[in-house]
């Protein structure tokens, strides 16, 4: 055995000892939320004839995305409720063009939730990565999403079988990046902070949250690496194929 092969073998052996449980974010880490949501909204836009109110679908979706990001931050901080989050994000684009109609908002938002759970797109190469990881580690989903959606999305995409459990912020009453949800996840998995690894695409929720909880972290920068980061996470990857190089 060459020196390089021996070092690689020792590295992988150390990783297996080091990590018992790997916690993975769902949306835009495993399940392609951005793409699936856009596809679903495109259907809603056409079905509800929103083209009469907006310059284009891109105009409608840009309004939605900006407000949705702001509202999710407020929801994560406990400043608005789940119902307020959903009502405001779906009504916002129509309010901005003077076309708000309560009945329309209720109808198209309800239909959005009915349809999106059947979308099947996942992040590139994630299935191969999950095949590899599930044979070596205990995998758990750790997400801020809603249970009535997350479980069904995973089943539709055919990724539910890789995971031993699904841990959601609704189970705890707090969201990532707050420490309580990471502590709860350890209890569920029967793991210690030193043997836990978090993989996710959100710098604040996944990387900073895991770091503060004493976990190792993998920043999944699928949109591309920023020019600089506030600190160096344990690992950084832009493609799921890279995971074999460090796990």
Automatic annotation (TrEMBL):
Q: What is this protein called?
A: Haloacid dehalogenase-like hydrolase
Q: Which InterPro entries match?
A: HAD-like_sf, HAD-SF_hydro_IA, HAD-SF_hydro_IA_YjjG/PynA, HAD_sf, PGP-like_dom2, Pyrimidine_5'-ntase_YjjG
Hydrolase is among the record's keywords:
yes
**Pfam short name (any one):** Hydrolase
UniProt GO MF annotations: 5'-nucleotidase activity
Under Gene3D superfamilies, the record lists: HAD superfamily/HAD-like (3.40.50.1000), Putative phosphatase, domain 2 (1.10.150.240)
Keywords of this entry: Hydrolase
User: Is Hydrolase one of the keywords UniProt gives this record?
Assistant: yes
- Coiled-coil regions listed: none
NCBIfam families per record: HAD-SF-IA-v1, HAD-SF-IA-v3, YjjG_YfnB
């Amino acid at each position: 055995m060459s020196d390089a092969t021996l070092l690689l073998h020792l590295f992988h052996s150390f990783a297996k000892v080091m990590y018992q449980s790997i916690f993975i974010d769902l949306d835009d880490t495993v399940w392609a939320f951005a793409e699936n949501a856009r596809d679903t909204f495109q259907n809603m836009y056409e079905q509800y004839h929103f083209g009469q109110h907006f310059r284009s679908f891109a105009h409608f979706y840009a309004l939605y995305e900006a407000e949705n990001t702001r509202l999710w931050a407020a929801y994560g901080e406990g400043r608005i409720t789940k119902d307020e989050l959903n009502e405001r994000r779906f009504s916002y684009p129509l309010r901005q063009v003077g076309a708000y109609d309560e009945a329309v908002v209720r109808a198209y938002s309800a239909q959005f939730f009915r349809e999106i759970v059947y979308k099947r797109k996942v992040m590139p190469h994630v299935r191969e990565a999950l095949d590899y990881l599930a044979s070596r580690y205990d995998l758990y989903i750790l997400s801020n999403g809603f249970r009535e959606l997350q479980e069904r999305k995973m089943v539709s995409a055919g990724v539910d079988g890789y995971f031993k459990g699904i841990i959601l912020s609704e189970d705890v009453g707090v969201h990532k990046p707050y420490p309580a949800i990471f502590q709860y996840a350890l209890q569920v998995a029967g793991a210690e902070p030193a043997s836990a690894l978090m993989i996710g695409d959100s710098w604040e929720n996944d990387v900073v949250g895991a770091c503060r909880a004493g976990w190792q972290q993998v920043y999944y920068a699928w949109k591309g690496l920023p020019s600089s980061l506030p600190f160096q996470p344990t690992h950084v990857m832009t493609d799921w194929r890279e995971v074999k190089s460090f796990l």
